[in-house]
Amino acid sequence: MREALEKVLINSTLNVSLGDSSLVSTHYFSEKCQVDRTTASQYLNELVAEGKAIKVNTRPVLFFHLETLRQRCDNQVEFEKVYPTANSFWELLKQFMKKNDVFKELIGSSGSLSHVLEKSKSAVTYPNGGLPILLLGATGVGKSLIAQKLFEYGQSEGLYGENSRFLAVNCSEYADNPQFFLTHIFGNVKGAYTGAESNNDGLVNIADKGILFLDEIHCLTPECQEKLYHFMDKGTYQQVGDNTTVHHAQVQLIFATSEDPEIKLLKPLMRRIPITLKIPSLDNRPVLEKKELVYRLFLNEAKRINQKISLTKRVYQVIVDYHFSGNVGQLVNCLKVCTASALMTQLTSKDSLEIDINHLPDYIIRECALNGSLYAGGSTELIPLDLLEIEYSHNKNIYAFNQLLIQIGLFDGAAVSSELEVALNKYIESVCFEENQTGIKELLYTGFIQSTCQKLLPKYQVTITNDDTMTFSKLLSSLVATIHLCADLATENQLKITKLKEDIHSFDRHYYQLTLAFCEAISRELAVEITELGFINLYLFIKKFILSDEQKETRAIVLCHGFSTASSIKNTANQLLGNHIFDALDMPIEMEAKAIAEKLSDYVNDLPKTQNLIILVDMGSLEAIHQNIKSNKQLTIALFNNVTMKLVLDIGFKLIANESISSIVETIDQNNYRSHSVFVENKRRDKCLIFTSPTGISMADKIKKIIQNSLPTEIDLLFDSEDYDILLKEKEKAAVFRDYIVTGVIGTTNPDISNQSFYPIEDFIQLQDFETLVHIFGDYLSGEQIQRMADNILKYFSQDNLVENLTILNPEKIVRYVEEILDYLQKKLDVPFDSRVIVGLYIHISCLIERLITEKYITSYDNLAMFEATQNTFIQIVGESFTKLEKDYCVEIPTSEIAYLYDYIYKSQ
């Protein structure tokens, strides 16, 4: 498994793009290798420790393959094993890493075009030359540009050689001359037609090992289309004028059309194109992508004229709102016209070229004047290009994220879906990867989050680290500043958004209430009202960074002398572990041990679910700190002195692996740390008597009820029914032995748990003396009460009453069936059953019959195939003994039930 994970790590490092953590997070590796996150994290941290991987302590924690990363940086960087923040690491890579994301500059690559690009990349990387692609879309949507970018992508991935070519052909030029098309594509020999004075290599030959892009493919005649799909079949072709020589070429074909391919293209050609992708028109792309296009295209014009450009808000609004039937191509021409017109009318030399409403193309002015939109929005205030960049770059990520949120929903079952989790991580990084700013606004939000967390988190039993407080502040600031840009998206999807909010209330009420409390605080303290969509975003941020302590039974805390020694150890350990495992209390030299003990007591009492506490201390008075904890709960405490980073990390990894506190103490002591441990196990756990049966919990419950009803008075002893299979598998490690002091096990079959007394139900049925009852209940009942309990048991466990209490069937009829079955089994097996086994079999078979009739029989049995192969005779005999019952009730006893019957007979004898 570790080797497989390392291969995935190498591949992810090879393909990761700057600032994108989706391929290098623990979540990705656990999903890819189909292991839980804890296991994936353990393997990855082992690779880091061995010097094979790099770790970046951010949320989520990132991992990179060291050697692969060195190669991507041309061996120019000596990497550290661990980086404390993502920003510093990405900035380092920015300087040295060879860029391979050719699509990053393509507007919409992570938005409306993401699906097209992902499918296209899979076609390009397909073995043996890739797969043919058909790009659909109206004129001007960018089909040619995407085809060109796919070639660049293939080059960056090493799929095409240095001499490979990208060749583009507009098929509309050959609509009336198919012969010329075939000559151009496949080549010709000298004399093939009038004017063919020499041999001519076709484009297929020139584009060998590269891409041939055929635009407007619908313009080709059926004959030309036929020649193409014959070439696609085997990669062979013949030149015009030569019907004997067969040529070979490996060319990836990318087709494009603005027409309906089902009408315009031959069916055989369509069948040979496995990847068909539709590129959206400009009107069908998010408005933020359109704004980014406007910015980028004007920026190109500014570079071309070597002058800054500003435009009025009114012009900007008209361009953004206008329907460009020619899509991006028409938008490009529109902005060129605006720039050229402004240059022509510019009277004086200025630092910036100013574009106003008069510089728009005539067709836009005419149309907008007629429909009244020319002066409907915006003003004459000028906007510099850099302000346009700020608007789209800061906001496109939140728009794209919420678009996906509405599309796929929040939850997969009762948990946030993994796809949304990945998108959320990308969005968080896009916000946190921006330049750090410490202006008044940022300080305001940081202060607000800190004070609000102090008030709300103890009440809701959750925690947040200092580092995550800063990240959360930045996210909240971004959310408040940008969520209004999703207003149109929210209006269009109001019902879906309301339903998403209701889902949070249904599936995660605790965090719903916490988010509501944050919204109220934001409204009260910052005078900002959070919308429904903003509420959902805020919920996801809170869920990500504010961790629930509700289920955390074991806590670990570092206590050291000095102002920040413990905090420093805690912060470093949590970063290296990639998780919030340790808390810390610093003890200034002048602080008395009593004061730090009070702080520790408060810490424990504020965590209501904590049952186990690990304390790591340095020396002196802190070594006896556990004796002064005044807790309002029952605690098991492990204390380690002489704390070191190595010791802290070892304990941290064990906690991540969910090892028990007793196991941690044992293994730490064996590892020869220079640390002395004190283990104070909670002795005040409730005592418990377990009831179990291989026939199921319901049977165990019935036996428990009979024993409870036999008690003459209530006693301070818990009765608990436990799953037999779990006890058999986990033995003394089962949860019940951790939660209670188990005084014994009562049941039909012994689960063989070491150091535990087992009392078979038969001992109660054939109660010869009071020894069993005294052993179990002697500490709770007097001699007279035990006598009364014995009388009650004899009444409940008489043969007819027993069957009546343990089954829903007619006891008289069932007893008769059981008697006949037992007689037949003893005769055929030639094994006389003693009275104790017979009584037990009455119970077992009576309940078995009930399960058969109610169709709730046992279907699983360990090594069932082995049992069937080795016990044919026993299976046949039992089947014969049940023949009458099976006929009367129209049931059939399965082999799994026969196997349990075999175990009972031969293990009890």
TrEMBL record:
CDD domains, per the entry: AAA (cd00009)
Sigma-54 factor interaction domain location: 106-340
Keywords: ATP-binding, Nucleotide-binding, Transferase
Cell membrane keyword on record: no
Pfam families named among the record's database cross-references: EIIA-man (PF03610), PRD (PF00874), Sigma54_activat (PF00158)
GO biological process: phosphoenolpyruvate-dependent sugar phosphotransferase system; regulation of DNA-templated transcription
One Gene Ontology term, aspect cellular component: membrane
Domain PTS EIIA type-4: 553-676
GO molecular function: ATP binding; transferase activity
InterPro entries reported for this sequence: AAA+_ATPase, P-loop_NTPase, PRD, PRD_sf, PTS_EIIA_man-typ, PTS_EIIA_man-typ_sf, Sigma_54_int, Sigma_54_int_dom_ATP-bd_2
Domain PRD: 809-909
Record's protein name: Sigma 54-interacting transcriptional regulator
Naturally occurring in which organism (per UniProt): Vagococcus allomyrinae
